[in-house]
Amino acid sequence: MAIPFQIDPLTPADIPAAEAVERRAYSTVVAQKELASELKNWLAHYFVLKTMAQPAEVIGLAGYWLIAGDMHVITIAIDPGWKRAGLGQWLLFTLLADAHSRGADVATLEVRPSNQPAIALYQKFGFEPVGRRPRYYPDTGEDALILTTPPLASPEYQARLAGLKTETLARLAQF
Ligand SMILES: CC(C)(COP(=O)(O)OP(=O)(O)OC[C@H]1O[C@@H](n2cnc3c(N)ncnc32)[C@H](O)[C@@H]1OP(=O)(O)O)[C@@H](O)C(=O)NCCC(=O)NCCS
User: Fold this and answer.
1) What is the DSSP letter of 149?
2) Which domains does the chain have, with CATH numbers?
3) 33 pLDDT band (50/70/90 cuts)?
């Protein structure tokens, strides 16, 4: 199914636009990871979402670390002008598929309890709360919720991902 967007591994040339997307997407001033150093981090895997316009515009960024079979989501951000179109879902699907192909057993992340859009996205992908990290976010002192997926390789989870892939591509093909 043809869609007018592409997701590519992050390159040095993408960094200024990707960092600008992150700044616009997060309402807090807390920096995510420094992308230039993340490109040198062998645990890290980052992707940018681009339009197919000429020149392509970076409208999303997502990244994870793979540590001993645990895919740890570091960031997922969609430019505010492109939200609620299925693009965050496509980025998250891409991260999970990439991590699974590299041998990840399970995915974990931290999220602010106040971040309902992100929590809803993660619930759609089967993430469930497994704990809290007290006062995790230095800007507000908010706790972090820790969310985890079921085993990525389980037939049930792979069926869920396949369904989400079909849904996402059908949605994005309407652009
Ligand atoms: C979280 C974020 C990446 C979602 O991206 P998005 O492209 O808008 O999300 P999608 O359109 O792909 O939505 C997929 C699902 O997420 C959930 N969702 C996304 N935004 C939502 C909102 N504002 N309210 C409720 N549910 C929402 C829904 O379940 C949605 O499925 P549906 O469209 O079938 O209802 C985006 O809001 C963002 O960049 N937020 C700022 C950065 C951030 O907080 N990242 C997460 C850090 S832990």
Assistant:
1) P
2) 5-172 (3.40.630.30)
3) confident
